[in-house]
Amino acid sequence: MSTTKVFLILVTLTGAIISFALASDPEPLQDLCVALPNSGVRVNGFACKAESNVTESDFFFSGIGKPGVINNTVGSLVTTANVDKIPGLNTLGVSLARIDYEPGGINPPHTHPRATEVVFVLEGELDVASITTSNKLISKKIKKGEVFVFPIGLVHYQKNNGDTLASVIAAFNSQLPGALSVASALFSSKPAVPDDVLAKTFQIDATVVE
């Protein structure tokens, strides 16, 4: 192979590597960047609190140590431990949540637009599933001590089919993964999605939508 061809290949590979690097999230450029939500400045995250004002409480949260009180129709409760609760997570790209389920309770189909989710079962047994963009359902029954992964952006759910309480700890590779409920997005948006759009989408009569 000629020297010119080798040079061109190296230039092409270098360009591809640089493009890939620029497409990924940047690493933090400081030891910490404790969120300052009230600053009014948002640059793909929160502005940083002055380091002289940072305390240990910026990195601490005790809210997922015990089950929450479930008081809704779906029978589950999500307690988040993200940057809204732990300002010290700002720019670090990680967060947690605790999800508790009554017997028969469900965490309805939803997506996390900014994160992959990994759940670890603390108690009970759950039926879990995600749905790929080719409409393949990937489902499994998981129990205490087991782990399941929901890839970023895919619709997924968990359901407690047991007769006792269940709970999981969920980990995310985002400080604020977001959660988009499929049902709420379609039927509770403001302004509302037009009835004829929903009727056509689900192949049902508009009166059923209403």
UniProtKB/TrEMBL annotation:
Pfam families (UniProt xref): Cupin_1
Cystine pairings recorded for this chain: 33-48
Compartments in which it is found: Secreted, Extracellular space, Apoplast
Annotated GO MF terms: manganese ion binding
GO biological process: plasmodesmata-mediated intercellular transport; regulation of root development
Any one of the GO CC terms: apoplast
Name assigned to this protein: Germin-like protein
